[in-house]
Amino acid sequence: MRIHILGSAAGGGFPQWNCNCRQCDGVRRGTLRARPRTQSSIFVAPDGGADGVLFNASPDLLQQIKANPVLQPARGQRDTAIAAVMLVDGQVDHATGLLMLRERGLPLPLWCTDPVAEDLTQGLPLLRVLGHFCGVERHGVEPDGRAFTMPGVPGLQFRAIALASKAAPYSPHRDAPVPGDNVGVVIEDTRRGRSAFYAPGLGEITPPLFDLMCSADAVLVDGTFWTDDEMIRLGLSKKTARDIGHLPQSGPGGMLEWLDRLPARTRRLLIHVNNTNPILDEDSPERAELARRGVEVCEDGQTVEP
């Protein structure tokens, strides 16, 4: 299978439209060695197949489609390679791009958990809005690890696992999480026996979850913040990374400690990187530390083959 990184930044992208932090200002001025990034999303297609699954529909989706010709195979007057969409949560930066697909001639095949469907019907009623356009063919996802397949993408199998993170601010369970608010997904290539684990929003790694990560050939996991107090130190928030559902990379129990323990064969990639995270600066000591540990930072336009 091929995993196309459409967007690798957290909400707001990089540079963020209203941010003049050292990194956003530096990338605009060309004084920082860093690459602009759109908001987090991937497209996964089986080997030899044109059609695949869009994981998360970012607000930057139209820009991402234009930048990635694989999403527009142009086999007919109206065409797309997006056979289905799966959402790992109901956050704005992962769901509002659904509206950009409203011209689809048939109902949009959408895979998500019940809590996410509730959030996107009530708190942020995107699914109700789409009902006035193409409509939605919604498929339920159980966050219990059971395997399922999707029509139109032969050779791929999926498993969703409930994660500890945060539901969207407009969710009724924002401060009282329920299983399915956030999921990680195991994507398996059943023909080649290869797999990847995708979790752009991950607040805690439990032993069972870590065992699952160890079984994957590649992990694409939460790269939002470098330190737990990153936003507080910069005066941008009063909340820590963990408060808003993201495990920081550094510090005791941080993401890097877990990634260091993965089998040597496992490819390690960080995705959903916030504009404040120093790993975006390719000359930073934090980026050098990632290189030393064998951890990659996802880039827009990159293709990953587990």
Automatic annotation (TrEMBL):
Domain Metallo-beta-lactamase: 53-272
Assigned keywords, A-Z: PQQ biosynthesis, Transport
Pathway(s) it belongs to: Cofactor biosynthesis; pyrroloquinoline quinone biosynthesis
GO biological process: pyrroloquinoline quinone biosynthetic process
Pfam (any one): Lactamase_B_2
First and last residue of the signal peptide: none
Family annotation (InterPro entries): Metallo-B-lactamas, PQQ_synth_PqqB, RibonucZ/Hydroxyglut_hydro
HAMAP family referenced in this protein's UniProt entry, alphabetically: PQQ_syn_PqqB
Biological role: May be involved in the transport of PQQ or its precursor to the periplasm.
Family indicated by similarity: Belongs to the PqqB family.
NCBIfam families recorded: PQQ_syn_pqqB
Name of the protein in its database record: Coenzyme PQQ synthesis protein B
Native organism: Rubrivivax gelatinosus (Rhodocyclus gelatinosus)
Lineage: Bacteria, Pseudomonadati, Pseudomonadota, Betaproteobacteria, Burkholderiales
Gene that produces this protein: pqqB
